[in-house]
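Standup notes
- HV: blocked on the assembly model, inputs below
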Amino acid sequence: MSARERVAGQVANYVDERTGSAKWLKKTLTKVFPDHWSFMLGEVVLYSFIILLLSGTFLTFWFDPSMREVEYEGSYEPLSGLKMSAAYASTLHISFDVRGGLLMRQIHHWAALIFMAAMVAHLMRVFFTGAFRKPREFNWIIGVGLLTLGIVEGFLGYSLPDDLLSGTGIRIAEAIIQALPVVGSYLAYFVFGGAFPGEVFIQRIYTVHILLLPGIFLALITVHLMLVWYQKHTQYPGPGRTEKNVVGYPLMPVYMAKAGGFFFIVFGITAFLGAVASINPIWLYGPYTPGQISAGSQPDWYMGWLDGLVRMAPPLETHAFGHTISWNILIPGLIIPGIVFTGMALYPFIESWMTGDKREHHLLDRPRNAPNRTALGAMSITFMLVALINGGNDLIATHFALSINQIMWGTRIGIIVLPPLAFIITKRICLSLQRADRDLVLHGRETGRLVMLPHGEFIEVHEPLTPEKAYLLTQHEQPAALEPVAADANGVRNPKGARAKLQARMSRAHQEQIAKPTSKEMLEIEDHH
Amino acid sequence: MRYLSRFRRHRFAGPLLLLAGLLFVGFGYTVAQAASQTVTTTNSDKATLIAEGKEIFARGCSSCHGLNAEGAGIAPSLIGVGAASVDFQVATGRMPMADMSQQAMRKEPVYDEEETAALAAYVASLAPGPAAITNEELAWERSGDTAEGGELFRNNCAMCHNFAGQGGALTQGKYAPTVMGVEPKHIYEAMLTGPQAMPVFSDNVITPEEKLSIIKWIKHAESEPALGGAALGRVGPVTEGLLAWTLGLGLLIGVAVWLTTKAR
Amino acid sequence: MSQELAPLSDPGLPEHVHRKADVDLRAAKKAERQVGILFLFSVLGTLLFIYSYVGIDESIFIFLPVLGNTNAHQLFLGLGLAMALFFIGMAAVHWAKTLMPDHEVIDIRKEQRSKDDDRSEFVSTVKERAAEAGLGRRPFIKRTMGLALGLVGLSPILLLRDLGPLPENELNETNWKAGTRLVTDPGDRPIKPSDLEVGGVAQVQPAFPEGKERHLDDIGKDSVLLIRIRPEEFNLDAERLSWTYEGIIAFSKICSHMGCAVALYEQTTKHLLCPCHQSTFDVTRAAKVIFGPAARPLPQLAITVDSEGYLVAKAPFNEAVGPSFWERDSK
């Protein structure tokens, strides 16, 4: 036994005598994780979160979350002598008078953008592969919760420097709060400590941004990861992979090295962006005052769709009995996002209701094999994209020589017309891909080699698929649609009546598939050859 | 001389001589031109300038603006717009207008300095209006205050031209152009005369000193390098989000694909 | 229908293919060298980071393609940090890919559902111990416990009362009164009608008495835009026309939609555009909304001149400025 082994043994003994962790560690170190690049999107989110914690902590050592008025005395000439809040002045200080300060600010903000982008990409991967199905519905809901909180956290974060652009965003947020019926004006006065902008808002959102929300994030992320750990990660279908196993690499040493290395890579790429790309140049925006505004004011990208919805809203307001309700704010700002996020959160249950499927699923779906779900996803993405595009309509107008009025009308119509169109087109594409798969299985791969038969006929040589590939293309299940039961054997009508009929109809639409090749057809083909 | 004549029948002799001749004529002409450009305008010169301006106007502007600059359906009256207006529009190339689209675009000026001055003198002679700004009045480096200029810019200009002067959208396809790369003279004149959709910023609303401060700030913003790296257009979060999704996620997914690929 | 389909049988995990480093010792050594070099790149990165921090002056700018003139200190600090981190990751991943075993391992999934006897044990345990707690048999405890916990949960809400004052009538009021002078923003200079040319705009605030400071709260409701057009271009009723002065008209700059500053004035069309959500207001018709999500026109401030010829407000705003709220009596 070498000296190193002896010391290691002593340390392990010390820890195990106090924690009994040897058994757990042995199981943990040999845990198997499937390996696919699309499984790393969630890792990007997690590592970005850690980067945000680290860079954010650095920034808190210099940031002053106070709105008290100060005169700028730092090194950035074009603002010298101007009155501004201490929050803005301290952010300028970090940017210009703290070495590495601007770098850290930029790393923090780029990490936030990547955090949200990777979260959306991860959500899309989970959705399109059906990873949210039983037993992972809770994890999906936690994920939607993380997404919502992430949007809020990002908004509060970039509002902390109290610059003209983010201050405008806060003005808009205040207008949404104020627009709430009955309680709006009171809630706005409580949140802002009086009239807008007041003197306490920045320090209040500071507490939410660095303490409350990160705490909630840590708790939710921990539960999210624990569920993945104990339920074991899903895997793509393929030869050797079943619902009852996990095929991959062990935690130690392979996964530790790959995942741990990936953390450094994510950090490195984020730092690279922070080094070469300017982000949130608050010194150019100027300090916030409600009397100023810049052309082309937008929120960060993950709120762009909300901005786009608000821009395209019809000017609806009701005035009755001395009271006003601003539907033009409430509908795009609260009601539609509420419906979208609630629908997203409940989707696993909606789908299992439609399919009647109550089994566990650990093998992922190839998106083409779930055409209805894939089409629904494409529809939602189209909706979001149209809203997002409208959020930047003034920038699009100046850069592509268009008119904001045209773009606005285009997106007003587009947001109603394009999503259903995307649904239909995507579903048809999925079914076509299924047909292509079926042809591949039955007829093999077209090699492009032409051969002339003795009697003069030209044929193309088809190469039969490898057993692995053929298995991959046919392993998916195609459960039948639910049959509506009008009455049971004794003639008693179904008490669920209309709901059951609706369920059956949706089930039929959902289960529309191109049938896999039957064994009879396979035999016929073999005979033919 | 005898050495040179040995090459008189060389195949490059002709072209070379031609080139030499052209250079000689061109150089000589330039020298002659420079000599003929006088500096000051005496009273009699002014009268000639107005007459010259009237002639240029009749040729190049009256078809839209009317024979006496009284305006017509497609173009407004120029009576009272002043020399400053004319100098701005013509020297930035906006006038003569290239196409009858939403607004006049900055482009290569058609008329040179002298012709522009002539046009300005002619239009100014029709009725009193804002005078062209002189170089003494334009001492923005000396008289302007960058910080004050920034505040004034954000208060009066950023809502159309964007916080960094990059330009912005107006309604129906009109736009406020970028103020980067514009001569201080023309910035001043634009504020003073309010070309097309731009409002007029009279000298009592934004004083001449304040206008100089705005120019100083604009020039500073123009020369200020992006302090954190590539500027991404200085238009805000839209380009930042685009970069995060394309370069950011793109690089990360690229690495992820490499990471999960089996080694050779 | 499903009975007909016979899925092709699972051929099992494909044959393991060895990597070069698995069979060839030289290839393994080469991979080891590559991992080492990657770690050394990281070291270089850290050294660059340290050098940039202490050695590169913050005022040096260098020109690079794409980036333009860029701050050398900031750039190399960031590149150093990026290199230092990135290559650790690359080295670890390359090590795992080339040298660590890449045999796929199979682990068995157990059903998430607990075993039946565990479940029945759980149910009976809970039932027994709930009975021991006795809530079911002791409704008085249950009800009073509910009351106590419910009320104590409400108390922190009361603590939030002092987060802010009650709005009372503040949302309906601004600092504009009859006789308040209009002053330029910034500069605080009073304005005569002759100061403003036709086609001109001015950013305006109410004059504050000596000693009273203007705060952002005030700017957030007092900001006014002064616009001059030709009097014959107005399309107003008699009352609104009487609120103008010789072609000069004043509107609240705070957008009636969501409160952004509406200051984008198009001289040719006489339209005001709010850059936040593109609400467009027609100045000739008392800022009537002609496009966009705003539902109400901008409040108009009645103006006239005082005895010294300076522009003053004739009266306060006749309605609340800014975004709508429940108690707003909008017409």
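- HV (later): unblocked. Chain C touches chain A through 99 residues (CB under 8 Å). The helical segments of chain C are 20-23, 25-55, 72-98, 116-133, 139-159, 216-222, 238-241.
- Next: hand off to the docking folks.
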